[in-house]
Write a structure and sequence with these properties.
By secondary structure, this protein is mainly alpha-helical. About 65% of the residues lie in helices and about 10% in strands. The strands form 2 sheets. It has a two-stranded antiparallel ribbon. The radius of gyration is 19 Å and the shape is globular. GO terms for molecular function: DNA-binding transcription factor activity, RNA polymerase II-specific; protein dimerization activity; RNA polymerase II cis-regulatory region sequence-specific DNA binding.
Amino acid sequence: MAPRGRVELRRIEDKASRQVRFSKRRAGLFKKAFELALLCDAEVALLVFSPGGKLYEYSSSSIEDTYDRYHQFAGAGRKVNGHNNDNRDVAASDLQSRLKEIATWSKQNNAEESDANELEKLEELLTNALRNTKAKKMLAKENNGGAGASTSSQMLLYSAERATDK
């Protein structure tokens, strides 16, 4: 039996095919999240926004509880050299406010009914938030990581470049 070849990942041009693929992959992702929670007794929260802006969510317990737990966990690693990094706190609150703004916009507006300018603004907002998050994550790893930090930084930069190229 011949080995399976790799399939090139690229955007699906046909809108109907893309929607069908999204639905199937979303269902598979939610199934995996459910299985992970059930089989491994893991706490799982999953949020997916469709290309049309519709929100799909799954949580093994409560999304709010999982989100709060994540912030407690992330907050424990914020001490650098014995003191809190105020810049990181400001950046985290800025990012959190941006995410709330995006979620509010998504709930209030149906993306399919939005004009191109509004969608471009949203895309720019998301791209900037993603770029800032990756840069802050890289800096945090460099501050806390020690010897392996440069490799992690290079990998994060590479993934950020790939994300912005798409």
